Amino acid sequence: QVQLVESGGGLVHTGDSLRLSCSLSEPNFGSYTLGWFRQILGKEREFVAAITWSGGTYYADSVKGRFTISRDNGNNTSYLQMNSLKPEDTAVYYCAANQDYRPVYLRNPSMYLMDADEYDYWGQGTQVTVSA
């Protein structure tokens, strides 16, 4: 069974940094596209960032220039480095994995990666709270 486990959340102040980690229990980790989403209670899950199996990265406009997604295939882990955090970044952050991403068949790869329904597996989430 595929399992995703997030870690690294916490309570920080405006302007601080956090690094979230997501480990995936699969031997073929390198073939997965990984995404980070966030959700505030009562709102829909929101796309944050994605990194494809080939290393391509995509970001929501709200985090561009502040967040960086990366992956370490040797350690089966994806990271979300979050800098210059703002109170509006407060949410539960979820890691997700997609095993079917094939950009050659997609008219709009970025829209595909931003769609939570395209991800096959999800972690349990980690809370990030940014105080003013």
What composes the largest sheet?
7 strands, mixed
Query: What is the distance, rounded to the nearest whole angstrom, between the alpha carbons of the first and last residues?
Result: 40 Å
Q: Summarize the helix and strand pattern as letters.
A: EEEEEEEEEHEE
Structural class: mainly beta
The tally of strands reads: 11
Q: How would you state the average pLDDT, rounded?
A: 95
Give the topology.
Blueprint: E1 4-7, E2 10-13, E3 18-24, E4 33-39, E5 46-51, E6 57-59, E7 67-72, E8 77-82, E9 91-98, H1 109-113, E10 121-122, E11 126-131
Description of the structure:
It is a single chain. The strands form two sheets. Strands 2, 4, 5, 6, 9, 10 and 11 form a seven-stranded mixed sheet that branches. The model has no long low-confidence stretch (mean pLDDT 95). The protein is built from one helix and eleven strands; from the N terminus they run βββββββββαββ. Strand 5 (46-51) and strand 6 form a beta hairpin. Helix content is 4%, strand content 45%. It is mainly β and 132 residues long. It is globular.
Structural key phrases:
45% strand, mainly beta, 132 residues, 4% helix, single chain
Summarize the structure.
The strands form 2 sheets. Strands 2, 4, 5, 6, 9, 10 and 11 form a 7-stranded mixed sheet that branches. Strands 1-3-8-7 form a 4-stranded antiparallel sheet, with no helix packed on it. By secondary structure, the chain is mainly β.
